[in-house]
Amino acid sequence: MLIDFRSDTVTRPTEGMREAMFRAPVGDDVFGEDPSVNRLEQVAAGIFGMEAALFCPSGTMTNQVAIRCHTQPGDEVICDVTSHIYQYEGGGIAVNSGASVKLISGNHGRITAAQVAEGVNADDVHKPVSRLVSLENTANRGGGTCYELEELQKIRAVCTENKLSLHLDGARLFNALVAKRQEAADYGKLFDSISICLSKGLGSPAGSVLIGTAPFIKKARRIRKVLGGGMRQAGYLAAAGLYALKHHISLLEVDHHHARLIAEALRQKDFIEEILPVETNILIFSVRGRYTPAALVAALKEQDILALAISAHQVRLVLHLDVTEEMVQRTLEVIRAL
């Protein structure tokens, strides 16, 4: 029994999802004629009470399309230093948008309204124009931490005051909504654009959705074309996303519960130095003593458990749809024996 905690992107479609994909009506999405894609975009936008949406192959593409929509060359994007848009999207902000970045050291990936206000550049020809704030919820490198709605509202107020756009990298936003008992519609009122991933905690094989106003999505569709994101008969993938939105959001709490169980077992071990706050399905911890991250990952692999060393000090485990109760119990046994 192989247990894969490397990421929540390793899931396979469930039988119900496969059936939905098999039966999906399709057409040419670049012509706007794929009924399954059109339906997914309508549903996703409706969840957040926003006007329109755009289906893309990946979360990196939805983020990069959004940044290019919101900025022009020479502008500046404000974000946390650990943000996915900065750390894991191949320098796309510079390549795709010609924009610079102001990095803020937040709290486990979360920045505050006060930090955003301080980061806004004055109207000075020597400085780039502060144009966009990008937040990440949940924060991947923060260990899956979540924003409080009150802080998001304060950040929105700062953005409005300074005429900044506000984008949300919500790759795992549904994990945050479940963990914090928040409403999706509240996010639609706060953000100018939202990116959600269907291929992470929700278990789809591929795809992300960018959500915003109708004019914004019209512009985004053109940029998606430039980036090569038109997928033609993409309805087979869109059907998987529709199935996930209907059936898999309610299962996310199980992943959160499993993450807490594993964290509790790790806290009993003397080689654990620190565990970041466990709010959702991501578990990041630092090791010391007889294990390095690489050595611990190797020891787990010998027991058919796959984990990821993400730095010289840290290991990451991610719970997901394909991790069963039996797999969690087996993992707890292995940890206790280390």
Key structural traits:
338 residues, alpha/beta, globular
Structure characterization notes:
This protein is an alpha/beta fold. It is 42% helix and 18% strand. The protein has 14 helices and 13 strands. The chain has helices at residues 15-22, 35-47, 59-70, 84-87, 92-97, 113-119, 149-161, 173-180, 184-190, 214-226, 235-247, 252-267, 293-302, 325-337; strands spanning 3-4, 52-56, 75-80, 100-104, 129-136, 165-170, 193-197, 208-212, 272-275, 282-287, 305-306, 308-309, 314-318. The chain has a seven-stranded mixed beta sheet, with helices on both faces. α3 crosses α10. The radius of gyration is 20 Å and the shape is globular. The model has no long low-confidence stretch (mean pLDDT 98).
Q: What is shown here, in short?
A:
With 338 residues, this protein is an alpha/beta fold. It is built from 14 helices and 13 strands.
How do the helices and strands line up, and which of them pair or pack?
Blueprint: E1 3-4, H1 15-22, H2 35-47, E2 52-56, H3 59-70, E3 75-80, H4 84-87, H5 92-97, E4 100-104, H6 113-119, E5 129-136, H7 149-161, E6 165-170, H8 173-180, H9 184-190, E7 193-197, E8 208-212, H10 214-226, H11 235-247, H12 252-267, E9 272-275, E10 282-287, H13 293-302, E11 305-306, E12 308-309, E13 314-318, H14 325-337
Parallel strand pairs: 1-11, 3-4, 3-5, 5-6, 6-7
Antiparallel strand pairs: 2-8, 7-8, 9-10, 10-13, 12-13
Structural class determined from secondary elements: alpha/beta
Sheet-strand content, in percent, reads 15-25%
- Please provide the ordered H/E string of secondary-structure elements: EHHEHEHHEHEHEHHEEHHHEEHEEEH
List low-pLDDT spans: none
**Spatial separation of the terminal alpha carbons:** 19 Å
What's the arrangement of strands in the largest beta sheet? 2-8-7-6-5-3-4
Multimerization status: single chain
Number of helices: 14
The helicity comes to: 40-55%
Q: How much is the radius of gyration in Å? A: 20 Å
Number of strand segments: 13
Give the integer mean of the pLDDT values.
98
Coarse morphology: globular
Major beta sheet, specifics?
A: 7 strands, mixed
